Known about the structure:
Layout: H1 25-32, H2 37-43, H3 47-61, H4 65-82, E1 90-91, H5 93-102, H6 106-126, H7 129-135, H8 138-161, H9 172-181, H10 185-190, H11 193-208, H12 230-263, H13 271-285, E2 293-294, H14 297-306, H15 312-328, H16 333-338, H17 341-356, H18 365-380, H19 384-400, H20 409-412
Antiparallel strand pairs: 1-2
Amino acid sequence: MPDCPAPPTAPQPPLLREPPVGLGRLWLNLQQARFNRHELAGSLGDLGLFVPLLLALSTQCGLDFATGLFFAGLFNLLTGLLFTVPIPVQPMKVIAAVALTQGLTVHQLVAAGMIVSVLVGLIGWLGWADWLTRLVPWSVIRGLQLAIGLMLASRGLQMVADTGQWFGWDSYLVGLGCGLLVLLPPLARRVPAALVLLAIGLGLALAQRPELLGTLELGLTLPAWSPPTWADFAVALPDAALPQLPLTLLNSVIAVCVLSGDLFPSRALNPRAVAMSVGAMNLLGGWFAAMPMCHGAGGLAGQYRFGARTNGAILMLGAVKLLLAVALGASLMPWCQAFPASILGVLLLFASVELASVCRDQTAKADATVMLVTAAVGLGLNQLLLGLAVGLVLAWGQRAGLLTLTPPDDTATAPRSHTD
């Protein structure tokens, strides 16, 4: 889908660099937040992955929707107070993909997020983030992202296929129509596709089950204590946590800090502070079975594209999430269960395409080879950790000169025959 040009904004006084840690920092950060229509529009730029994955984990894996929404909103608010850059709060994609395709339980996926948070927080506290990320080439990370994107795309298409009918409120034609709708250029430029499909899905759910309207009740809903067990950690470590770790370090810490420096030169994020933020989030939410979350460069780019320039966008988004979770949380799950699987599958499909599309930057033959082999092993054998290991061996072997992943110059430049 084409990028949306950022809406014009009125001249504003320059914002300050992140103030030093100490008394008054939160108040200074809050003073720099702007609350206007551009920031509000920008806050929606990261919902393309958040909405599909939260819905999918709730309907397919049993994650409590209100709990996931509550902690996402809480972390948005805390992030908006700690940083002046509109840094997003996103689901951990590897963990979500493994949970959806391999059938992890809620507590196993939560345990995976807690393991990653401990490791990332420790790495950030020790100042090892830059050093460790240099060990894992981008081509390997892109291979993991490609595999995750294809896994989620496959799951999304399967959800559409599982409807088993061409006609009806939840059918092949509904999925096909929604997919074509969000590809319309005028719509794609103005509104996040996730919001369009969410509105259509809720409308169809209500049309099919009018009694849902009576289930919405105002009340006080708070997360319940639901910690994972040691057995959950044992399963989560090899299956989801270790494949997620390098992606979190590179995309959620290093890449988001680099991008913040490009977009906001006077307010570039500090890798240590971002790593500590990732570490703290899931160590808090994990005890209540909240969806594993992190930050992300793609989310920051999306929010900036739609108009976010300050932490005001994140604070507004967090307030809305938190209000919905607390006021309507107990009555949201029936709506999730009634949401058409065909539309949820299309949501997941578009989110996976967005995730996999970042792999286009691997244009060198050697990098593309490492990326494709990493993805092929992880996807073909359903073992992302093994794909990561094979990709690292190839990339390190290429760096050391032990492996040649590109053809010799004379072969690469030889003219093609008519039989090629």
